[in-house]
Amino acid sequence: xxxxxxxxxxxxxxxxxxxxxxxxxxxxxxxxxxxxxxxxxxxxxxxxxxxxxxxxxxxxxxxxxxxxxxxxxxxxxxxxxxxxxxxxxxxxxxxxxxxxxxxxxxxxxxxxxxxxxxxxxxxxxxxxxxxxxxxxxxxxxxxxxxxxxxxxxxxxxxxxxxxxxxxxxxxxxxxxxxxxxxxxxxxxxxxxxxxxxxxxxxxxxxxxxxxxxxxxxxxxxxxxxxxxxxxxxxxxxxxxxxxxxxxxxxxxxxxxxxxxxxxxxxxxxxxxxxxxxxxxxxxxxxxxxxxxxxxxxxxxxxxxxxxxxxxxxxxxxxxxxxxxxxxxxxxxxxxxxxxxxxxxxxxxxxxxxxxxxxxxxxxxxxxxxx
Amino acid sequence: xxxxxxxxxxxxxxxxxxxxxxxxxxxxxxxxxxxxxxxxxxxxxxxxxxxxxxxxxxxxxxxxxxxxxxxxxxxxxxxxxxxxxxxxxxxxxxxxxxxxxxxxxxxxxxxxxxxxxxxxxxxxxxxxxxxxxxxxxxxxxxxxxxxxxxxxxxxxxxxxxxxxxxxxxxxxxxxxxxxxxxxxxxxxxxxxxxxxxxxxxxxxxxxxxxxxxxxxxxxxxxxxxxxxxxxxxxxxxxxxxxxxxxxxxxxxxxxxxxxxxxxxxxxxxxxxxxxxxxxxxxxxxxxxxxxxxxxxxxxxxxxxxxxxxxxxxxxxxxxxxxxxxxxxxxxxxxxxxxxxxxxxxxxxxxxxxxxxxxxxxxxxxxxxxxxxxxxxxxxxxxxxxxxxxxxxxxxxxxxxxxxxxx
Lengths: 370, 406
What we know:
The structure holds 2 protein chains of 2 kinds. By secondary structure, chain A is mainly alpha-helical. Chain A has one domain (about 10-325): Amino acid/polyamine transporter I. Helices cover about 75% and strands about 0% of the residues of chain A. The termini of chain A are far apart. Chain B is an alpha/beta fold. Chain B has 11 helices and 13 strands. Chain B has helices spanning about 1-20, 90-100, 120-125, 125-135, 150-155, 165-180, 190-195, 245-255, 320-350, 355-365, 365-380; strands spanning about 30-45, 50-55, 80-90, 105, 115, 145-150, 205-210, 225-235, 240-245, 260-265, 275-290, 295-310, 385-395. In chain B, strands 1, 2, 3, 4, 5, 6, 7, 8 and 9 form a 9-stranded mixed sheet that branches. In chain B, strands 10-11-12-13 form a 4-stranded mixed sheet, with helices on both faces. The interface of A and B includes residues 112, 172, 178 and 243 of A.
């Protein structure tokens, strides 16, 4: 069976939307800590540790351009430890996807569809994503090609529309750094840890046209999404005010909702909800694809497709049960909880892999010298 | 193969569901009572909120029945809107208690006007703001105003040129804002942002209910206007502390850079009983903090551009001359008087609506930490602001000199 390939451009789109969607959803720089008017600085700061982490776990992929994480971890660590480690990473996909679908469904229930069961909303999103994942990574890539311009246009549009109001509201961004760098760093913790989403890269690298450049592409996606994040943070904080913004559950959405330029240009929140949904579709499809692919490789199945439906069912259940209520979701993304969790998922497995890789290299060289 | 077929079936089943969405929890427009304006009052004796909601009445709307919407409305049933009221210990409880009086489910997203009675404003508006911020159906783009006079009367009043009273109020804000700067136009989001800032107090415009004869008395073209927008209410925290006049609000708009258009009446230098009207149409206002933590002062610089709107001689307006310079100086002085009027009023009420405290907080947070506890009671009431006003007259209208012969 010929391997399906996507262009690096498509990977860029997928990762960009994955990353940007978190900001559209709940703007962690503003809502998870006490950065307030310095949230935009947090958006700059978070890029650097996030990029380092990305280099850390993406770096191995460039050394095994033809292998997914599931494959090279078995090669490096041996069969069983490799499988266990892969399962841990696959858990991250499952969990993040479930959480993100859940936030979206929660938003719809909170704002638009108060009586609709969560199950229905989550099922709708996961089934569509499952159909895409079943069609393969090429289809997801093409969908990303199609949706990315619309996505970006909607987000940039929602950021440009409130511009006339910005002049009057700009004082909301001052004072800058009044409380030192502490709040800025605290605001950057959760967005930095959200880089755990980019673990999908480790499963997608062999599907790339130019796998060697995969890491560079994903860095570009991270940089691009972080730039958008800065603008979202600036506009949202300015329009809503630092503390009303931080109090909001969905700040970006709230910001778009309060924009009323004239009697006709108002109630534009559909833009942000649409963008969010489109991004989420690509996101969940990518997660589902990576999860199913990884699982099929762990268990030595020929094709991942047979796993999609059962996995989608698990995904749906997980989405419904990942949190009992809104409070648990909020607690989950608190820096003190989310950062250790995400970092553990990244640092422990990949330290083991790097150690194994470097040791192997070291011993090979020595044996070569002998 | 089998799997594919199964998937296809599943998708078809899911899609089939979408065909029937119209029937599940449907909310047909004809079953909704669209709320156009809402008003809150507070009853101190029972400690309860009273809510008035003005609903669109589609039965009377649209139909061109001559007398129905033109203000004559004798019987309530003919008007294009319907006002209902309820009471409750909290704003939301009051909203809930409306249910039971309306035959249609209340629908809030189209509510554009939020009226607060003086009582409720003096009692505190935080609860009402919370309702609008938290509630799914409420929008923060609603325009608030504090009502001086009978809230119930204005909630039931109709505006001769508009189909519904709410539409009338909404248009009133826009129209006033474009021509005169006597009403601070702020939507609820901006007010909430102001309320959340340190060292800055809210200013909500005033809606004055006019003493008109009983409704229905005036017929056809002679019905008097039910209300006037003019002036504003000053707040400290979420409680109203006093009124400001139209002149004072103009001062606020000059000082805070919010003038859209505003007219000044300036006495002529030669003959003090004759006046020139000058309309300002663009301006900048800047506040700045100078000095260090020991010795600081605040400067406010206002630059305005204007054109002559009414000129009754004597004097030449064909070149920059003594007269134009003098008019500019006088206009600047008039602006300065307005700003000072508002400034004095705000000091009197200890309501820092210009946000001088906020300016200090923004520009020098350390200084603000030191003085914030003393700000409201000691520092702000004694505050001196260095105010400079520059006025440039850029146009004279379509003619130069006056008709009057010198």
